[in-house]
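chain below, 453 aa
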Amino acid sequence: MFTEVLVALALGGLLLFIFQRNRKQVLKTEDGWWGPGAPPDAQEDVSIHPFQIKTSAEELQDLYRRIDQTRPVLSLEDSQFNYGFNSQYLQEVVSYWRNDFDWKRQVEKLNQYQHFKTNIEGIDIHFLHVKPKRVPKETEVVPIIMVHGWPGSFYEFYGLIPLLCDPSERDNLVFEVICPSIPGYGFSEAPHKKGFDSVCAARIFHKLMKRLGFQQFYAHGGDWGWLVTTNMAQLEPKIVKGLHVNFAPPSKPGLSMVLSLLLGNRFPKLFGFNGVDIQRLYPCMEKQVVEPIKETGYMHIQATKPDTVGRALNDSPVGLAAYILEKFSTWTCNDFRNLEDGGLTRKFSLDDLLTNVMIYWTSGCITSSMRFYKENFAKGLYQPHSKMPVYVPTGFACFPKELMHTPKLWVKQKYHQLKSYTTMARGGHFAAMEEPQLMAEDIRTFTKMIEEK
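prediction:
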């Protein structure tokens, strides 16, 4: 009898061990309060209010006065964008901003879609909610939340939204798009307390989607949006039906990643590397060390002392434009550093670039947006979510000029249900804004694949 009990306990323990080992992990989180002071005793207001972006003569007069009082600094001869935003070209951008850019017209463009605000965990969350204007018979309406990054905004998706919300003749689905501003960005209120990181943003966006009545939805993100939507998939994998990202730097280097870097150049087939992988990864020291160092100085500042530089940028529109637009140059293509104009208008119009800058300027959000780096890096590089796989069906769009190249092998280490890995024909870090047609096609293809399964 005693022996039978021991055997039963041993078998039970073994089964429990196997179950625990194979059980899919779910990210844990707790509700927060990010408003000023202590949370009120009253029940949370779950109402949703229409919101409209506005401007005024006073706002523009203040902007012009500050632009007129800027003190230009000469760039070094033959420096192009290698020292930062070229001062001579900056004067051209500023002149256009001051004399030709029509902010009132751009405000009308921003308001072409319906904007809303709702209070979650003590702060007002801004979002767009765009429904398809027509839904043909037997066409499925698929909800998708799209999350931006820094120094972008919800405006990055303005070229993409109509491509998703108009029904395609090739397939029977159309999207209903929700585009929130990350708290502290654009017209979402900034957290009043320390500690607001990507997991907190993910939790808030889950609450937003539930408040809008969605039981399941798709999610798309690049830059910080990649991490926020990834955390959303980790928090509630049964609710996120599919995850689509165009940025996925390895969160924790593993043995296979190290081996692939060491041996992939000589034995590419062993690691599934293709020509693009070899071109983007090697020579390893230059591509994985030297190049990132050239472009990540901003990250160190924002991950340590964001409020210091933030104060200067919040006072100077010209300084703010230089700081933001320099990223739209070199992050679109690092070769643009060698051009006098930074290649800015090769992929974007000045109207679109300055509209994004004006969202930061008029909302006064530059400091709070940069704090997001501090909050995410302050807790260490290996937070629980960085060690946790993603089990939600995932699609990855690999753009050739992205800041960091992530081969399929590395993506699969994190995203265990990688359903599509698309090597895109062109495009860089701000892919949704730069190549909306390519992005829309990949999102559609991925979503259709999941829906059919």
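Residues 49 and 117 are 5 Å apart (CA to CA). The radius of gyration is 23 Å.
thats it, cya
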